[in-house]
Amino acid sequence: MSLRATGALRRRNISERIAKMMLMGAASISVVTTVLIVFSLLEPTIEFFGEVSLREFFTTTKWSPLFNPPKFGVWPIVAGTLWVALIGIVVALPIGLGAAFYLSEYATPRVRKLVKPILELLAGVPTIVFGFFALTFVNPELVKRFWPFGQVGAFSAVGAGLVTGLMIVPIVASLSEDAMAAVPDSLRQGALALGSSKREVCLKVVFPAALSGIVAATVLAVSRAIGETMIAVLASGSQANLSKNPGESMQTMAGFIAQAGSGDVPTGSIEFKTIFAVGTTLFVITMLLNMLSIRLVRRFRQVYE
Amino acid sequence: MNAPAVTAPEVSLRSNSAAGKRLFDGVFRVVLYAALGIALAALAALLWRTWDEGKGAVGWHLIEKQPSERPARAGIQSGVYGTLLVTGLCAALAIPVGIATALYLEEFARKERWYNRLLDVNIQNLAAVPSIVYGILGLAFLARGPLGWGPTVQTAGFILALLVLPTVIIASREAIRAVPGSLSSGSLALGATKWQTVRKQVLPAAIPGIATGSILSVSRAIGETAPLLLLGGLTFLKQNPTSLDDRYTTVPLMIYSYATSPKAELREIAAASIIMLMILILILNGVAILIRNKFQRRW
Q1: Between A179 and which of A76, A210, B86, B148 could a Cys-Cys bridge form, CB atoms 3.0 to 4.6 Å apart?
Q2: Does B1 touch chain A (CB under 8 A)?
Q3: Alpha-carbon gap, residue B154 to B178, rounded angstroms
């Protein structure tokens, strides 16, 4: 019998190869996306730093690029971003971790089946809705009434931070729970057999064993909070403000991009380039956090799978 | 895999105060209930407040009227058309490409190759890039720059497709991974080629999981606002977009316009629009969960 492929077989081989090539082509789109993001940011950013010195950008503390005379010290909007993200994570970490412990270690399957979809619903709420909630309820009804330091206006970093925290609770909760579920049951049973209570199993066995996954979840949540735009735009305000009091209105980096970019900014103008320079700063910060998180997740997977 | 490299943490056996221990156990349990309770209460507050603010203006008439600065005449019709077109385009682009990428990574890619590992990390990273950065990408390459499509349905749909693509890929990969290897082994053993196996065995078995992930991704695209702010979507459009190169606006962008308006009555319109948007998203989420619970087989 001849070993050479006959017509039908050869056609089959060809269609095999075409199918694989098409799938590879589709896969390459996501690489192209990353390359395009980097390129789209790079050129205007380089042009921006041709007009504004790196020194002014990173060492001065006045931010008013859309006014005359423009000032390009980026720290006020970096500080605003960090305030919102910090308040967000301070809210989300205990709530998300508590929910994860409860769902992973305490809840009966029936309760889990009820609570998980509710958390998924929270994850599915659009950010514009969170922003509206921050603007119409959290700022005027909570922050204005209970913030102990100074007067609070219509906008405040703390209001935006609280609601951003609520938004990232599902990220902390579901990723931490995944990490806890990956802890082998033998560890729990060993501890219980030695007379530990459930709390001790949680805090002294599951928590340390799932720690890298929990840290990864936290880092990813911080990254999400830093890049969050709509809550910041609606609730934190449009005033760049370097202040120690988060009860004041502050602009964030993402908020600046959204506000400066909503109008019809002429291509090539300094305003246009500023959007890209801030975008680059935001992209670099969040990418570093994402890479850190991906690394940490890989570590806990390696240990147990 | 080696034995777990984690040493079991030391567990204290001192029980000098059993009552104290029981107290702490109780306190811990209460703290966990409180954490979950706060999250659920906050979600309830959000839904209740929005309902309370918007209930007076909810109704089909919102969809029948075009955007307006005058509260009595304000609606969201052009936004509804825009949302349908933009999300439709987004889904049509992102779902096939996402499934194809997932199939490549799970079934064809050799994991030890450096470029496949890079692809994997790249997708995870893209999933966490802030959405506003995708807006910048669209501004630089699609709306202006080399393609110059302007502020159109096409620009918005493409950018949202790129934005949700990583989520579709990740969800589809999980669904494909859950299909047992014995299924493809059997098919290959009977003489089917790799591609025939993937197309006729793996893909059909993974479809429910892929559908769930895709629906959730599309529902994310429906609510997405930030990147579209940069892509010219923030206008009071009085004409419904009907083709890909028409100007557009979407429901979330209308909500943003109405919410930031100085007129308090327009906030009611914003809240009412949120209610309608949330109902749509709830229905989509419900369908996704239903598909998952009904059709997902345990192998």
Answers
A1: A210
A2: yes
A3: 35
Mean per-residue pLDDT, A189-216: 92
Write down how long chain B is.
Answer: 299
Cβ neighbours of A37 (radius 10 Å): 22
More reliable by pLDDT, B50 or B21 = B50
Q: Is B263 inside any structural domain?
A: no
Q: What is the ipTM, given to two decimal places?
A: 0.90
Which CATH architecture group holds A63-304?
Orthogonal Bundle (1.10)
Percentage of the residues of chain B whose pLDDT score is greater than 70: 93
Statement: residue B6 has pLDDT above 70 = no
With contacts defined as CB-CB under 8 Å, which chain B residues touch A95? Answer: 35-36, 38-39
Please compute, for residue A287, the number of CA atoms within 13 A of its CA located in the half-sphere on the CB side. Answer: 14
Residue B107 identity (one-letter amino acid): E
Q: Say whether pLDDT at A295 is over 80.
A: yes
pLDDT of residue B42: 95
Tokens at residue B31, please? 């703290």
Contacts of B266 (CB under 8 A, 6+ apart): B69, B71, B74, B258, B259
Using CA of residue A211, residue A212, residue A215, residue A216, what is the dihedral sign? Answer: negative
Alpha helices in A136-269 (DSSP H): 144-146, 157-181, 185-193, 198-200, 207-227, 230-231, 253-262
Nearest CA in chain A to B224: A126
How many structural domains are present in chain B? 1
Residue B298: count of CB within 10 angstroms of its CB: 4
**Looking at the domain assignment, is residue B21 inside a domain?**
no
Tokens of B195: 């591609």
Given a cut of 50, whether residue B1 has pLDDT beyond it is: no
Three-state DSSP at A245 gives coil
Would you say residue B122 lies in a domain?
Answer: yes
Q: How many CB atoms lie within 10 A of CB B96?
A: 13
**Cβ separation of A40 and B36 shorter than 8 Å?**
no
The domain spans of chain A are 63-304
Calculate how close chain B gets to A60, using CA atoms only, in Å. 25
Mention every residue, 6+ apart, whose C-beta is less than 8 A from residue A59: A73
Please name which of A257, A221, A223 lies closest in space to residue A77, comparing C-alpha atoms. Answer: A257
Helix A157-181 / helix B18-54 crossing angle, nearest 10 deg:
130
Residue B180 lies in a domain: yes
Q: Provide CB contacts within 8 A for A159, sequence distance 6+.
A: A134, A138, A139, A142, A143, A235, A236
Separation in Å, CA B74 to CA B26, B64, B71, B289: 54, 10, 5, 35
Query: Given pLDDT bands bounded at 50, 70 and 90, which one contains residue A65?
Result: confident
What is the residue range of B160's domain?
78-254
Q: What CATH number has the domain bearing residue B148?
A: 1.10.3720.10
Q: Are B9 and A208 in contact (CB under 8 A)?
A: yes
* Residue A112 confidence (pLDDT) above 80: yes
